[in-house]
Amino acid sequence: MKKYGLRARVITLTLAPTLIIGLLLSGFFTMNRYNDLENQLISSGTSIIEPLAISSEYGMTGKNREAVRRLISYAHRKHSNIVRSIAVFDEHHELFVTSNFHPNFESLTFPKDKPIPLLLDISFQEESLILRTPILPEGKFSANFDSSHINEPLGYIAIELDLSSLRLQQYQEIFSALLVLALGLGLSGIFAYRLMQDVTQPISHMVSVVDRIRRGHLDVRIENKLHGELDTLKNGINAMAISLSEYHVEMQQSIDQATSDLRETLEQLEIQNVELDIAKKRAQEAARVKSEFLANMSHELRTPLNGVIGFTRQMLKTSLSENQQDYLQTIERSANNLLTIINDILDFSKLEAGKLLLENLPFDFQDSLDEVVSLLAPSAHEKGLEITLKIDQRVPSGLIGDPLRIQQVLNNLVGNAIKFTEKGNIDISVELKHLTDDYVDLQFVVRDTGIGISERQQAQLFQAFSQADASISRHYGGTGLGLVITQKLISQMGGEIGLSSRLHQGSTFWFTIRMNPTDLPMLNDHDITQLEKKKLLLIEPNMQSASILQQQFISHGVFVTYRSTLPEIIEPHDYALISLSSNSKPSIETIQEMTSQLSANCSTIIVGLPSTELALTDELNQFSHITCLSKPFAKKKLLDALLVEKDLQPVPELPDLMAHASEEQKLPIKVMAVDDNPANLKLISALLSEQVETVITCDNGLDAVQQATEQHFDIILMDIQMPKMDGVMACKEIRKTALNAQTPVVAVTAHAMEGERERLISEGMDDYLTKPIEEHVLQQVIIHWSPLTDNSDVEKITILADAIPELHVEEANDKVMGSIDWEAALKQSAGKEDLAQEMLQMLIDFIPEVNEWIDKALESDISEEELCHYIHKLHGSSSYCGVPRLKQLCNLIETSLRQHQTISDIEPELFELQDEMEKVTKDANLLLSNK
Predict the structure, then answer these.
(1) Alpha-carbon distance 657 to 783, whole Å?
(2) How far apart (Å, rounded) are the C-alpha atoms in residues 785 and 93?
(3) To the nearest 10°, the Cα dihedral for 510, 513, 516, 521?
(4) Is the bond into 772 cis (omega within 30 degrees of 0)?
(5) 3-class state of residue 828 by DSSP
C-alpha cells in the first residue's frame, strides 16, 4: 500500500472538503433551478392553453373554423417567443384548424383508439414541450344542449412550446455553479499552499536534520524560526542531538577503556591456554600412568590371590577338621570378595578409558538369565528371600549380544537387591518392548522389598566410590562401583537405566538394551508338544512365583491346578510340583509325608528345594518317585524333570542314515576340513570321523585348493581367517576346479557378527557355522548338504540332543578347577574325555609361544598384525577347552587389534591375558595330573 507524504496529505485534506461541499451545493441548487425553469415553462403553456380551450367552445359548437383560427392565431402571435404551433382537433382526432403548418401533426394528437382525456396532458419531446387539453361543452352557445353530454369533449387543443430558450437558461445555471465551484477550489488551494509553507517545509527540514543525526552528524542543528508546536519540536530535536553527542563522547571513552581491558584479558587467556595445554598433557600422562598402574596392580594382586583361592580349594578337598574347614572357607570367601573388588576397579578403569569392548555372540537368552538367578539364589535363600524370574514369552530364544556383560549387569542389580532386602521378594522380569527382523528392544526390571532409597540419596547412586548413605558401606560392604559400572555398561550397549524407590518401601531398578535376533539354532532338546493337555498340581506358597510358573505351564498347553498348601483331597494329575518356601527348614520326614499323599494320584512328583537345602537332594533322590530341583526353577531343568518318563523322551526326527553309533552307520561320503588352528582341526576331524567315512584335513587354504584339484569332496568345511590364503579366496579358487565346482562349502568362523552370514554367502559360501562347533549342529549341516539326503528329508531334520553324559553335582564340582570348566570342555569335545584332555594339552603347549610373542609386542618388537595372528590362533584353541575367561580375553584383544588399536592401547588387557594364561596352565597341569 502506497504511503503518502505530509504535503500530499495536507493538499488532500484541504481541497477534498471544499470540493465535496461545492459539488453538493452546486448540484443541489442547479437541480432546483433546472426544475424551476421547466415548471415555469409548463405554467406559461397552461395559462395559454386553458383560456383558448374555453374560448374555442363557441367555434367548435358551431363548427366555425374561421372564428377558432382567428382565436388561436392571436394567441400564437402574442406568445410567439415560446409557442411553435397551436392546433385544434375535433372529437374524431381530425385537424380542425391550426395557427401554423406543422410537418407532423401526429405528435400533437392523442391516440385515436382511446378516448380524449378530460385533464391537461403534458409531454416532452426532444426539442419541444407539448400541452393538450380537451374543449368541453358547457351549453352556453346551444339552445338544444343536452346536459347528459357535458363530459363529452368537442375536441382538444394542442400547443407545441419551444425548449431551446429553456435549455439555454439551464446551461447558463450549470455553468454559473461550476464557476463558483472552481473559484472555491482556487481559494482553498491558496490556503493549502500557505499551510504547506508554514508546516510541511519545516517538518521536511526537521526530517532531513534527524536523518543526518542518525548517520552520525551529531553537530547538525535546526536553525530556522518556527511557530507554536513546531518550535517546541525543533527545541526537542536540538536537545536530543546535544544529548546524543555527549553520550557518543562518553561511549567512545568507555569503548576505548573496554578495548584496553579486553586486550589485557586476551593476553591473560593466552597465558591460561598455554597453562591449560600443559595441564592437559600432564593429565593425559597421569591417566596413562594410572591405567598402567591399575593394570600392573591388577596383574600383581590377582596372581598371588588366584594362587590363594586355587590352593584353598585344593586343601578343602583334603581331610580337615571342622575348624580348619571353616577357616579355609573364610579365607576363600575373603579372597573372592577381594578379587571382586579388584575386578570392579579394573572394569571401572577400562570404562573410564573407553577400552572395554563388547562381544557380539549368539547365545541362549533363557539359559543365560537362569544361570544368573541360580548363582544368586543361595545368597537370597540364606536370608529367607524368594527370587523369581519372568521372561516375556515373545522374546526370541536366540539373541546376539554380550551375554557375560548382561549377566554382570544383572549380577550387580540383583546382588544389591539381595544385599539391601531383609524379607520379601526379589522379582526379575524381562519385557519385550519392540521386535523387528533387525533388532529386539528389551526392558529388564529388578524389584525388591528392601530398605528403599530417599529422593536425596538417589542422586548419589551412580557416583563412583559412593553409596546412598555413607553408613551403608559399613553395614553392607561394597566399593560403591557396582552401579557406576552397570550404568556405563548399559550406556555402551546403547541402553539406559533408571530407578524408582521410596524409603522403607523397596526399590525398582530398570534398564533397556537393544540386541539382534539370530536365526542360528539354539540348543533345545525338549519336545514340549508332549506336555499338551497334561494336568499338573502346583503347590507354591509364594504368589509371585506361582503366577510365573502358571503362565509358563499354560503357554505349553498344561492344565494347572494351583494351591498354596497341600490340599486335603487330591485329584489325579500327571505331575505334581511342590515348591518349598525359602523360609522353611524342611525335613526328610515332612517331604516324605507330603509326597506319599501325592504318589497315589501323581505319576511324577517334583520337589523344589531352596538352594540352601541341597544336602537333602541325595537322600530324596533315592526315592524313585521324587525328583529334586533347586529353586528358582531353571526352565531347562524343569522341562528335563517333566519329560523324565520314557514315553515322553524327545525323539529326533533324522533320516535313518544318520545314526552314528557304529562304524557301519557312517555316511559313505568324503569331507574336507580346513583350519589353521591344530586344536580346531583335531576336534573337527574327530567329530567328522564319527559321522562320515572319509575325512581329509588341511591347515591352510593353499593345501585345500591343491586337494580340491586332485580329488572330489562331498562337503568342504572352510575356516575363514588363515595365513597364505584365507577361506573366502580358497572357496573362489575351489569353484574354478573341475572336480569341486559344485561342492557345498560351509564357512566356519568365530565371528557371529550381524550381517556376517549374509556377507560370507554373498562371497560364494553355501552355509555358515560358528565356533565353537556343537556336535548336533555339525550333524545337521552334514545331513543337509549330504548328496545322500533327499529333499523331502531335509525339512524333517531337527537338532540332536547333546551326547554329553550328565554329571552329578559332586562330579561337576570336581571337574571345575579355577579357570577351567571341565564340564564345558567335555561338552565341546562331544563327551570324549580323551579328546578333551588332548585338546587342553595342545592349548597348554601353545601358551608359552603366545606368551613369548606378547612379551615381544610389549617391547615393541613386533607389529599389531603379527600379534593379532597369534591371538587369533589362541582364541580358536581356547574355544574348545573349557576356558571361558581366556576365550573372552582373546576375543576382546583380537577385536581391538582388528579395530586398529595400538599395542599400547591394549597393554592392560595383554597383562590380564598373561595372568589368565598362567592360571590356566597351573590349573590344567593339576587337572591333567589327576587323570
Answers:
(1) 9
(2) 131
(3) -40
(4) yes
(5) helix
Alpha helices in 621-762 (DSSP H): 635-642, 678-689, 701-710, 727-735, 756-762
Q: Which residue has the cell 536425596?
A: 456
- The residues near 921 (Cβ < 8 Å, ≥ 6 apart) are 844, 847
What does the chain come to in residues?
931
Distance between CA atoms of residues 411 and 81, nearest Å: 133
**In the predicted model, is pLDDT for residue 675 greater than 80?**
yes
Q: Give the angle 840-843-845 at the CA atoms, nearest 5°.
A: 110
pLDDT digits (tens, 9 = 90+) for 695-714: 999 988 899 999 999 999 99
Strand positions, DSSP E, 502-596: 507-517, 535-539, 559-563, 573-579
Q: What pLDDT is stored for residue 612 in this prediction?
A: 78
- Closest-CA residue to 878 (of 750, 775, 725): 750
Cα distance between residue 363 and residue 523, in whole Å: 10
Strands 602-609 and 626-630: parallel
Cα gap 655→650, rounded to integer Å = 15
Query: With bands split at pLDDT 50, 70 and 90, how would you rate the model's confidence at 614?
Result: low
pLDDT digits (tens, 9 = 90+) for 854-891: 888 887 778 888 888 888 888 877 877 888 888 888 88
Cell 579372597 found at: 335
Query: 321: how many CB neighbours lie within 10 A of its CB?
Result: 8
712: which residues sit within 8 A by CB, 6+ positions away? Answer: 670, 739, 740, 743
Give me 857's grid cell: 609386542
DSSP string, 548-567: HHHHHHHHTT-EEEEESS--
- Decide: helix, strand or coil at residue 453: coil
Q: Which single residue is written with the C-alpha cell 525388591? A: 448
Q: Following DSSP, what letter does each residue of 247-259 receive, concatenated?
A: HHHHHHHHHHHHH
Answer yes or no: are the C-beta atoms of 348 and 290 closer than 8 Å.
Answer: no
List residues bridging with 749 in a β-sheet: 770
Nearest to 59 by CA among 155, 144, 151, 152: 155
Q: What is the dihedral of CA 840, 845, 847, 853, to 10 degrees?
A: -150
Q: Which strands form 121-124's sheet, in the order they lie side by side?
A: 95-98, 83-90, 155-162, 128-135, 121-124
| pLDDT (0 to 100) of residue 814 | 42
Helix (H) or strand (E) holding 74: helix 65-78
Alpha helices in 764-881 (DSSP H): 775-785, 791-794, 809-815, 822-828, 833-858, 864-878
Contacts of range 557-560, beta carbons closer than 8 Å, 24 or more positions apart:
557/529, 557/531, 557/532, 557/533, 558/531, 558/532, 558/533, 558/534, 559/533, 559/534, 559/535, 560/536
Grid cell locating 168: 439555454
Place of cell 523387528: 436
- What's the angle, vertex CA 656, arms to CA 654 and CA 660, rounded to 5? 85
CA–CA dist 573, 570 (Å, integer): 9
37 phi/psi in degrees, rounded to 5 = -65, -40
515, 377 Cβ separation under 8 angstroms: no
Centre a 10 Å sphere on the Cβ of residue 569 and count the other Cβ atoms it contains.
5
> What φ, ψ does residue 131 adopt, rounded to 5°?
-115, 130
Q: Which three cell numbers stand for residue 641?
A: 524333570
Q: Quick one: 115 exposed, middle or buried, by C-beta within 10 A (0-12, 13-18, 19+)?
A: exposed
Asked if residue 701 lies in contact with residue 727, where contact means CB atoms within 8 angstroms, the answer is yes
Q: How many CA atoms lie within 13 A of 835 on its CB side?
A: 22
Grid cell locating 893: 584383544
- Give the cell for residue 563: 494351591
Q: What DSSP string runs through 318-355?
A: S---HHHHHHHHHHHHHHHHHHHHHHHHHHHHHHHHT-
Q: Are strands 816-817 and 715-719 parallel, antiparallel or unpaired?
A: unpaired
